[in-house]
């Protein structure tokens, strides 16, 4: 029913959106990309460092300039005019082309890095060679496809981060949050690991803000060995890795909700919030999408738990005199931990589960326990029926590459910018579980002020039907909410506020609309 | 099984249907001539502006109605026969009812201006008006200038919509300042400035005299009461709305400007009720007007009448008045009563604070002698509904409000806070010595 669907004419659209400066900015940005494309065709640049510098600067300045032209001449406020008329942001031709282009890039990156210039046992060529000078400057090593990806990723978060800040410059929550993701990407994901590699060659690449199960590979044998071999620092990092799962993230999630991670720190979230911001309205808000989401994302959690357990189990020994942690103690430990979590939740929080969630939880718990028990008593060497290596490889391929990369980012212009975070990320699911059941965070609905306009739901990147709660006066307490704050920003009536408040009254499933007679509300809520 | 028929699928009618379904198994039929499904009328503007598609402003997915056994019927009710308990749809089809709820909403006002029915002249109320706007003003090549007549909430929304497509807008406002029959002067003045910031050609103290046609019967210009001719391709008439009740003229249902109802939302005819914009209260409720064309009151009446229909006869008792709007980029909220210079009486005193550079201000009304807090208007600051509702019920003093204002702040985290500045100004204006208290979660949540 939008303007586009109805009208066959070429009119009926917002005015031409590019001004002269923006056209030059587009030219500049694409020149930067073009230099990389030339490098990809093995054009030999005389001074690689210079040309890489020119290319990256052109991309950054192009985006920055474009954004400044788009927003700085308008008064500050919500800038969603024409979002659903533009081809790129409403699944039109440009949207599809961008999606196909990005998907293609990810397929090459993950499965055919030789096309980017990666040469086995030889010096790099192509695009990767263009990045050699920067990589050598930082870590002393030549570049890899991952270094190229990391650099472009960081440039994207920085450039589109600036764009995001221009767009939401009336909103300090958005500004501060965006500076935070820009900082964590540049420092923690990009610079610090490279410098650590320079200081101590044994330390594996470790982005300290990447927590298991997002970095599902963190406890693989080669990494554990590398951590232990690099002395105290390595050991400290290993301990930090374990603490961040069991201590740090539960405490922060209790106080702030999962937003402390998903929209303030995480790199995937960082890209989604900055480069992906133009696509947030494309997420599916239907009830059926929510059902799919719950099953898929929690299945990934089960998968990663089984896979990691199997991998760690595979390299542990049986001899208690050598090392306290043996195959058996580890397995019992995992079983105990899962049982504890399951029992606590089922005893104290059972009433907060939907029927299908309860069945799902019980079902998965029984399956995992049966597998562990089966293995423990039968002594079969293939834990969980498959070889640990098979589990590891399939997880890496299906979830690590296809889901998080190809679909997660490549499909931004089709399914919205948080497809991976919503349907695939096991870290988001675990934090979400904590957020739903053990956290002070909620989005407060302001009495009876909601007018059901739908801006909040439309611009929710996680596909939460925010309006469904707000129009009943209910607070929004959803495990998937990443706390980006955009629902609150786009609300024209000041109805929504993200806050960390007391647990009492956090979830109130009654209709609590104000303005009406109190006795009537009692009647309305009678079950 | 009792047959409940609701005419109108706006927020009032749909809320009534939802609550009847919650409490009973009655058959529910909603009749609308406007759209197949319920949508948020207040959000129509965002469809034209491209913030949302029409499907996004429907609060319930399309399967909702069948699942909840709410039957939807598209058609225009042309006659109500209360003796036979029948409705005539488009002079053809007959529908029987046991109980009838009239929730027919409003229609835009037209005051008999010459040329008011020309092509290119329209109001902004219905889905059809939105579709018409796409024809009258799709872009600034076809619509080189639009003139809007009537300085209220719909007028400024229409101006914002047209500006989103870079269409030049002339805004004729009868009053000496925008919406100053409702807003106190300081606030009205700030909105004037903001309208100009958005490059809207605001003409205060200006009335429409006549709309001129070209040779095809399309609007080509307007003439104002200042004698000026303004060439334009579209005229938006937005001088308010009135109840949509003309189809009931000979029905025997008592009409005033709207459908007359008692406090139980019952009309003079048994088993016929009226709710929402089209209802006119026979007895005044507090300071409220007899007809309130507001989203929130429509919703409240829907909840109330549902109780009555389900056997629990309930009086319509809206609580403390509240409302909200957005003027271009400035959000507005109000709790309790703050009257304009034109509307306020002798005993109502105002405290006004405005930010030195940003478009942020507030006005607090209180009783001159008793210092009882009467109401607050805020612009660019969000306030907590619960807290003000509580303060109004407890009949707190204005001094209490200033002291605990931080509890009521609802702005997003990290926003600049102005409560200290506000208290300073209040102390200076009224010779008090109030020190604002820190925000306290216990007061906010435990007391309410």
Q: Note the main sheet of chain B.
A: 5 strands, parallel
Label the CATH architecture of the largest domain in chain B.
3-Layer(bba) Sandwich
CATH first level of the largest domain in chain B: which class? Alpha Beta
Q: Tell me the β content of chain A.
A: under 5%
Gist?
The complex is a heterodimer of chains A (527) and B (448). Chain A is an all-alpha fold and 527 residues long.
Structure overview:
The complex is a heterodimer of chains A (527) and B (448). Chain A is mainly α. Among the domains of chain A are: 16-73 and 112-199, no CATH class; 442-524, Alpha-Beta Plaits (2-Layer Sandwich), CATH 3.30.70.20. Chain A is built from 23 helices and two strands. Chain A has helices spanning 3-6, 20-40, 48-71, 93-111, 126-130, 132-138, 145-167, 172-199, 221-229, 231-256, 259-262, 267-274, 287-315, 327-348, 355-378, 388-407, 412-415, 419-424, 426-437, 455-458, 466-470, 486-490, 518-524, and strands spanning 441-445, 496-500. The longest helix of chain A is centred in the middle third of the chain and has 29 residues, at 287-315. Chain A is flat and about 80 Å long. Chain A starts with a helix and ends with a helix. Residues 1-12 of chain A have low confidence and may be disordered. Chain B has 448 residues and is an alpha/beta fold. Chain B has three domains: 3-107 and 242-309, FAD/NAD(P)-binding domain (3-Layer(bba) Sandwich), CATH 3.50.50.60; 121-239, FAD/NAD(P)-binding domain (3-Layer(bba) Sandwich), CATH 3.50.50; 322-446, 2-Layer Sandwich (Enolase-like, domain 1). Helices cover 24% and strands 25% of the residues of chain B. Chain B has helices at 11-23, 44-48, 64-67, 127-136, 153-163, 185-197, 295-309, 385-393, 398-403, 405-408, 419-430, 441-446, and strands spanning 3-7, 27-32, 70-74, 77-81, 86-89, 93-96, 99-102, 106-108, 121-122, 146-149, 169-172, 201-203, 208-213, 219-224, 229-231, 234-237, 241-243, 259-261, 272-274, 279-281, 322-327, 330-336, 348-354, 361-367, 373-379. In chain B, a hairpin with a 5-residue loop joins strand 24 and strand 25. The longest helix of chain B has 15 residues, at 295-309. The radius of gyration of chain B is 24 Å and the shape is globular. Chain B starts with a strand and ends with a helix. In chain B, 48% of the residues are buried. The mean pLDDT of chain B is 96. The interface between A and B is large, with 68 and 75 residues.
């Amino acid at each position: 029913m939008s303007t586009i669907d109805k009208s066959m004419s070429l009119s009926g659209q917002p005015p031409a959106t590019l001004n002269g400066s923006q056209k030059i900015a587009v030219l500049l940005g694409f020149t930067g990309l073009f230099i990389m494309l030339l490098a990809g065709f093995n054009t030999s640049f005389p001074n690689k460092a210079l040309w890489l510098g020119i290319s990256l600067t052109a991309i950054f300045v192009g985006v920055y300039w474009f954004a400044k032209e788009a927003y700085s001449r308008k008064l500050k406020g919500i800038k969603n005019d024409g979002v659903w008329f533009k081809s790129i942001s409403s699944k039109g031709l440009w949207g599809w082309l961008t999606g196909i282009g990005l998907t293609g890039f990810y397929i090459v990156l993950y499965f055919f890095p030789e096309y980017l210039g990666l040469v086995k046992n030889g010096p790099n060529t192509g695009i990767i060679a263009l990045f050699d000078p920067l990589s050598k400057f930082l870590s002393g090593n030549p570049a890899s496809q991952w270094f190229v990806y990391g650099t472009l990723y960081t440039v994207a978060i920085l450039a589109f981060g600036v764009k995001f800040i221009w767009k939401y410059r009336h909103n300090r929550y958005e500004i501060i949050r965006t500076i935070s993701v820009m900082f964590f990407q540049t420092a923690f994901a990009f610079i610090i690991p490279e410098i650590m590699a320079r200081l101590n060659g044994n330390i594996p690449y470790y982005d300290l803000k990447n927590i298991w199960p997002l970095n599902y590979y963190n406890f693989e044998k080669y990494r554990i060995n590398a951590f232990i071999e690099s002395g105290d620092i390595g050991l400290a990092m290993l301990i930090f890795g374990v603490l961040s799962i069991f201590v740090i993230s539960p405490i922060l999630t209790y106080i702030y909700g999962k937003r402390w991670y998903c929209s303030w720190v995480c790199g995937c979230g960082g890209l989604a919030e900055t480069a992906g911001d133009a696509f947030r309205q494309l997420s599916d808000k239907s009830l059926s999408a929510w059902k799919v989401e719950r099953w898929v994302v929690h299945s990934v959690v089960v998968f990663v738990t089984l896979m990691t357990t199997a991998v760690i189990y595979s390299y542990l020994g049986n001899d208690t005199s050598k090392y306290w942690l043996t195959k058996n103690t580890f397995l019992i430990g995992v079983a105990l931990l899962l049982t504890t979590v399951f029992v606590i939740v089922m005893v104290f929080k059972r009433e907060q589960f939907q029927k299908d969630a309860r069945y799902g939880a019980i079902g998965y718990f029984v399956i995992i326990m049966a597998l562990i028990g089966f293995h423990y008593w039968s002594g079969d060497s293939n834990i969980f029926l498959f070889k640990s290596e098979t589990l590891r490889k399939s997880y890496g391929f299906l979830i690590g590459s296809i889901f998080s990369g190809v679909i997660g980012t490549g499909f931004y212009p089709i399914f919205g910018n948080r497809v991976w975070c919503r349907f695939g990320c096991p870290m988001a699911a675990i934090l979400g579980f904590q957020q739903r059941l053990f956290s002070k965070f909620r989005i407060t609905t302001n009495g009876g002020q909601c007018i059901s306009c739908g801006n909040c739901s439309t611009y929710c990147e996680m596909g939460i039907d925010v309006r469904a709660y707000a129009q009943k006066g209910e607070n929004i307490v959803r495990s998937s909410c990443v706390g980006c704050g955009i629902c609150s920003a786009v609300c024209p009536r000041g109805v929504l506020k993200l806050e960390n408040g007391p647990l009492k009254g956090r979830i109130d499933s009654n209709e609590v609309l104000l303005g009406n007679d109190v006795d009537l509300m009692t009647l309305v809520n009678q079950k | 099984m009792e047959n409940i028929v609701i005419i109108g699928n706006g927020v009032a009618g749909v809320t009534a249907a939802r609550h009847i379904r919650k409490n009973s198994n009655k058959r529910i039929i909603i009749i609308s001539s406007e759209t197949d499904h319920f949508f948020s009328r207040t959000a129509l503007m965002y469809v034209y502006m491209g913030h949302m598609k029409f499907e996004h402003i429907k609060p319930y997915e399309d399967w909702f109605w069948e699942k909840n056994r709410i039957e939807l019927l598209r058609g225009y009710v042309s006659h109500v026969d209360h003796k036979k308990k029948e409705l005539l749809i488009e002079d053809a089809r007959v529908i029987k009812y046991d109980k009838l709820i009239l929730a027919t909403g409003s229609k835009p006002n037209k005051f008999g201006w010459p040329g008011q029915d020309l092509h290119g002249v329209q109001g902004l109320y219905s889905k059809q008006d939105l579709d018409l706007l796409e024809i009258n003003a799709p872009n600034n090549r076809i619509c080189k200038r639009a003139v809007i007549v009537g300085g209220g909430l719909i007028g400024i929304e229409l101006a914002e919509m047209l500006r989103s497509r870079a269409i030049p807008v002339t805004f004729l406002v009868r009053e000496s300042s925008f919406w100053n029959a409702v807003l106190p002067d300081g606030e009205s003045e700030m909105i004037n400035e903001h309208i100009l910031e958005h490059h809207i050609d605001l003409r205060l103290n200006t009335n429409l005299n006549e709309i001129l046609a070209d040779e095809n019967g399309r609007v080509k210009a307007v003439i104002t009461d200042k004698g000026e001719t303004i060439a334009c391709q579209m005229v938006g008439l937005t001088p308010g709305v009135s109840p949509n009740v003309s189809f009931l003229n000979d029905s025997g249902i008592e009409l005033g400007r709207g459908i007359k109802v008692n406090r139980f939302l019952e009309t003079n005819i048994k088993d016929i009720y009226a709710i929402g914009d089209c209802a006119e209260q026979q007895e005044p409720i507090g300071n409220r007007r007899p007809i309130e064309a507001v989203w929130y009151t429509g919703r409240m009446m829907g909840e109330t009448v549902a109780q009555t229909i389900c056997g629990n006869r309930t009086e319509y008792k809206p609580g403390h008045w509240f409302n909200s709007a957005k003027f271009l980029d400035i959000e507005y909220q109000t709790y309790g009563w703050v009257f304009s210079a034109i509307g306020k009486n002798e005993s109502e005193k105002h405290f006004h604070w405005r930010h030195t550079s940003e478009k942020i201000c507030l006005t607090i009304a209180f009783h001159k002698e008793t210092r009882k807090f009467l109401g607050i208007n805020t612009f660019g600051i969000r306030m907590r509904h619960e807290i003000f509702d509580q303060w109004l019920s407890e009949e707190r003093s204005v001094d209490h409000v200033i002291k605990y204002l931080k509890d009521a702040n609802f702005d997003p985290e990290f926003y600049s806070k102005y409560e200290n500045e506000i208290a300073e100004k209040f102390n200076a204006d009224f010779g008090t010595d109030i020190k604002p208290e820190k925000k306290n979660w216990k007061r906010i949540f435990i007391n309410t």
